[in-house]
């Protein structure tokens, strides 16, 4: 689990990132979760945007994604979800 201080640190890091995944009409599926796991391994921190036409609400999407990819949910802001997962191979982010 992340502490409040670590979440603040990750939020400031994520601020400059652009969402690299979009969840739309299809919702969350195995393929999306697999791609997010791979991206988290490469980047550790990423944003996912929930499109207007998504059938599920953003909280449900955030929960499905964080559980499915075993990542920490850093924040949900607007329709954007920020996820963090420590990389095994290429660790870049040093948490406070």
From TrEMBL:
Alphabetic keyword roster: RNA-binding
Source species: Peribacillus glennii
Protein name (database record): Ribosome assembly RNA-binding protein YhbY
PANTHER family: RNA-BINDING PROTEIN YHBY (PTHR40065)
InterPro entries with a match to the protein in the record: RNA-binding_CRM, RNA-binding_domain, RNA-binding_YhbY, YhbY-like_sf
GO molecular-function terms, A-Z: RNA binding
Entry-linked Pfam families: CRS1_YhbY
Domain CRM: 1-96
Gene3D superfamilies given in the database record: YhbY-like
Residue intervals passing through the bilayer: none
Family matches, as NCBIfam families: RNA_bind_YhbY
């Amino acid at each position: 689990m992340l502490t409040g201080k670590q979440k603040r640190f990750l939020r400031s890091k994520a601020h400059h990132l652009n969402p690299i995944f979009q969840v739309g009409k299809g919702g969350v599926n195995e393929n999306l979760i697999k791609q997010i796991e791979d991206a988290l391994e490469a980047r550790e921190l990423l944003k996912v945007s929930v499109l207007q036409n998504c059938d599920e609400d953003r909280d449900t999407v955030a929960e499905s994604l964080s559980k499915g990819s075993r990542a920490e949910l850093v924040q949900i802001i607007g329709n954007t979800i920020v996820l963090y997962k420590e990389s095994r191979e290429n660790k870049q982010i040093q948490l406070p």
